[in-house]
Amino acid sequence: MSNTHGHGGHDDAHDISKAVKTYIFIFGALMVGTVITVLASFIPFGNPKVNIAVALLIASVKAFLVAGYFMHLISERKMIYGILGATAFFFAGLMYLTLWSMEPTSIIHFIPNVP
Amino acid sequence: MDIPYTVTPRQDTGLFNAKVGIWLFLASEVMLFGALFSSYILLRVGAAPGTWPHGLLNIPLGTLNTLVLIASSMTVIMAWASLKMNRFGNFKIFQGLTVLCALTFVIIKSFEYRDKFSHYEIIKNDGTVLDGHLISQDKDSVTLHLAEPKKHPNAAVIQEEKKEEAAGLKVAHAEAGAEGAHHAPVTVPRSEIKKMENYGPWHNTYMAIYFTLTGLHALHVIGGALVMSFFWGPGSKMWRTEPERFTNRIEVSGLFWHFVDLVWIFLFPVLYLL
How far apart are CA A1 and CA B14, in angstroms? Predict the structure, then answer.
């Protein structure tokens, strides 16, 4: 956590009071985001893929707000970024393998020419 | 023996040890839920076109639970901020509210689960499919309230019906707005029933992944609520002797709670809306 929000021992009540205002703003944004997510799901965009993209985009923005401000990731130590960087790498790999496995030309769909 | 670096940061990491520990734990949690989301994608994309169910879950209840969880994220960070501002009384209020939000979430979820376990699909000997909530049953007959087809613009009909109709089965629902048919109770003699099954995790792939994802998430909510209840109650004595260490504990438990919220932010649209 940053020195501003955290445990360095030199942050003061004034800094926290300022941070609380940010938390209230983020809280409001998350509430509005939830309502928008629900309303957007009822809009017929014509293609279900667009609905999926919109819902996941809003969810990603909400996740950024929670991780960035409530979990203070926008001002963290390098150690935490290192841990999360490794996690993101393996998570991306997992999702890549998932999508790759669904490709019809993927090697895992190879059917041996059995007589 | 004193545990080192509970308050002061280590020189090499710049963090107190519990902070590193919780982030390593959360990294493993990301991979755990990531694997389940990956399974969801595989199952959904692999399902035959038009067979993935829509409209089976209660969107208003899911939305309410999302709002409750977001509110709890706010109260948990306010609990931590209160300690940083040396306001222990405020901490007690916010931490208590967080636990109440967690309980509310679990109660609402249990209502949703109960609804699924009393929601039955009956296939009769003549191929007719009845879908509705169980009112009563005895050794001779079963009585259901027939369910209304859900009206979602992106799933104009419950698409699972297409699969059943394609298989030569006739699906019977109470048509919304049809006179006399609204929530009509129907009694079926057991002798006419070929198969009867509720919407538990065994019902179909969608219900299986729904219960797996939300069940694991609910276990996290319960676990987090237990820890936060301890810090609200007996664990809060540490504030008198080691206030900084106690504040760090609240911060670490709060990070876990935010992660639980973060997972739900994705679970809600994926399972309820899409």
Answer: 9
